[in-house]
Design brief:
Elements lengths: L3 H4 L4 H11 L1 H12 L2 H6 L8 H56 L3 H12 L6 H53 L10 H8 L4 H22 L7 E2 L1 H17 L5 H4 L23 H22 L2 H26 L7 E2 H16 L6 H8 L1 H12 L8
Antiparallel strand pairs: 1-2
Helix pairs in contact: 2-5, 2-16, 3-5, 3-7, 5-7, 5-9, 6-7, 7-9, 7-12, 7-13, 7-14, 7-16, 8-12, 9-10, 13-14, 13-15
The chain binds 2-acetamido-2-deoxy-beta-D-glucopyranose (2 copies).
One 2-acetamido-2-deoxy-beta-D-glucopyranose binds next to helix 12.
């Protein structure tokens, strides 16, 4: 993956630092505002009216103060960035997972199939051979579909929330700076209502986008699994190969991830969208107008990120590492088994079970931790956070 930003992932702090240099003035102001030290920045210019020696000392002193202020501003930017990532990992994502899991498990329902098969075993008359085969085929496909969907959906939701929070974080940070620098500026900062409406889009995946994702994964899984007999023994590598092929088939359709997380034209279904806070006591109708435009712009930014190559690349890295995590779970069932592998039919319950593990135990989900620890994810977030076209601030 010869892409510069991915190669530079070990230099995330320095990326942010470079960016901080470029936006020095606004950062200093923002930092000063919060840290109460804006005077340091403005003060040094007016120092030194006395003797030359004194002047030089003052200039040196001012330079030192400025450097300190710059360092503080950079550190503050860095810590603001870190706090955004933490909020995403520990609060926002876990709060959305239960709905995602419920929706996925009701769309890819395995319990009905297994019940029928168990009944068929107890009462051999109840199922014809053909029906039984049919049920097994379905169980085979859906077990993989559930887990591949869980891997993709968790990665998608994780990245989507990070994109949103980093875009928001950047805007909020600069609103603060801008207000301070240009009090007369007519610019209206992001209202809470805009922020809420923006965040509401994170629900689109489980609400609607999942249907399309399940459909696409199902098609891919059917193609790959159609010719695989249930009795055939699979080694761990064979099993990984099946997952890889489903992924490759999915990728070959070049289905853009964006369609699973954003509605066409950015219009949320009614039951998802947050009602406009157009209470009668709010006299500013213009404000609501402005809100729509701001939201429109935020959504355009989000969409631009989602269709970018950078996003596709980091998404691939995430799904790969989810697959590694799943294979680690499955490794356990191979311990003590013969080298010849395990019949595919016997692998279906643990394969489907990995899908549950991906979306469960919210306070300590190892898959969320894997994503949070990926340096590529950090680099990507830093890119989104610092992807500023707000040159007016520079
Ligand atoms: C957002 O994108 C749409 C479609 O490309 C465009 O018509 C609209 O003007 C954009 N809105 C803003 C605020 O940039
Ligand atoms: C950066 O911004 C540009 C233009 O606004 C956009 O096209 C691009 O996708 C963005 N990239 C990232 C990673 O945010």
């Amino acid at each position: 993956m010869a892409v510069s930003w991915i190669l530079s992932y070990d230099r995330v702090p320095s990326n942010i630092r470079a960016w901080a240099k470029k936006h020095r003035r606004s950062l200093l102001v923002a930092a000063g505002l919060v840290g109460g030290g804006a005077a340091v920045y403005y003060g040094f210019r007016y120092l030194g009216l006395a003797s030359q020696a004194r002047k030089e000392r003052d200039v040196a002193r001012a330079a030192l103060l400025q450097r300190e202020a710059e360092e503080r501003a950079e550190a503050q930017l860095q810590s603001h960035f870190e706090s955004i990532q933490r909020i995403s990992d520990t609060t926002t994502l876990p709060s959305m997972l239960p709905q995602l899991k419920d929706r996925l498990f009701s769309k890819v329902d395995l319990s009905g199939l297994t019940e029928k098969l168990i009944l068929g075993k107890e009462d051999p008359q109840s199922l014809s051979q053909r029906e039984k085969m049919q049920l097994w085929q379905e169980l085979k496909t859906l077990s993989f579909v559930r887990t591949v969907c869980a891997m993709s959906a968790l990665s998608l939701l994780d990245l989507f929330i990070r994109i949103q929070l980093n875009i928001l974080g950047r805007h909020v940070y600069f609103d603060t700076a801008r207000d301070f620098m240009n009090p007369e500026d007519s610019h209206v900062p992001l209202s809470m209502s805009v922020q809420h409406k923006f965040i509401a889009y994170a629900g689109y995946l489980h609400h609607k986008g999942l249907d399309a994702l399940v459909g696409d994964v199902n098609q891919a899984a059917e193609i790959v699994l159609r010719s695989k007999p249930l009795k055939e023994p699979y080694t761990l590598d064979d099993l990984r190969d099946v997952f890889m092929r489903i992924r490759a088939t999915l990728d070959s359709k070049r289905s853009a991830w964006v369609q699973y997380v954003l509605p066409p034209d950015n219009v949320l279904p009614d039951d998802l969208s947050v009602a406009s806070s157009a209470d009668a006591s709010n006299p500013v109708a213009e404000m609501a107008l402005n809100d729509n435009e701001v939201l429109d712009q935020l959504m355009n930014e989000t969409r631009a990120v989602l269709v970018s190559n950078e996003f596709h690349e980091v998404m691939a890295v995430c799904v790969d590492s989810m697959l590694d995590g799943v294979m680690e779970e499955l490794y356990a069932i191979y311990r003590g088994s013969s080298d010849n592998g395990i019949p595919l039919a016997k692998l279906l319950p643990p394969v489907a079970g990995a899908g549950s593990a991906l979306l469960e135990s919210l306070d300590d989900n190892r898959f969320i931790r894997i994503l949070a620890d990926l340096p590529q994810v950090h680099a990507f977030c830093a890119l989104v956070y610092t992807n500023s076209s707000e040159e007016t601030l520079a």
